[in-house]
Amino acid sequence: MQTQTQPELTEQAESLGFVAINYITCQPHYRERFEELFRTRAKAIDRMPGFRGMYVLRPQKEGEPYLVISHWESEAHFRAWVQSPEFLEGHRRGFEDLRQARERGEEPPMQSDFKTYEILTR
Q: Model confidence over 1-48: pLDDT tens digits?
């Protein structure tokens, strides 16, 4: 039995892609608004090179975060999305909600904890 060398393993992981997961905790009063933002999303991410797909997952337990999972061909494709005008377009309404809450002196209606992963296996 022949084992793979480290470079072969790295190439295999890169070919499987890259995943970004945004863990989003919403204030109870904001959950309906948050879900509406995604149901009526701009779909700007869909036009980005290297984008493979996205899931938005609703937690089954109260107080747990939503998960927004995006799948990319590579980390470079994901980083290009984050720095693009399409990123701002896709997040404009949520960013506006955060700005308005800040101006009113309120706690943010949602908080984000972002993590990224290389796909090891499928």
A: 444 444 444 444 447 899 999 999 999 999 999 999 999 998 999 999
Q: What is the CATH number of domain 18-115?
A: 3.30.70.100
pTM: 0.82
Query: Domain extents for the chain?
Result: 18-115
User: Could you give the residue ranges of the DSSP H alpha helices within 1-122?
Assistant: 6-16, 31-39, 75-82, 85-103
Give the whole-angstrom CA distance, residue 12 versus residue 33.
Answer: 40
CB 47 within 8 A of CB 90: no
The Cα–Cα gap between 42 and 90 comes to 5
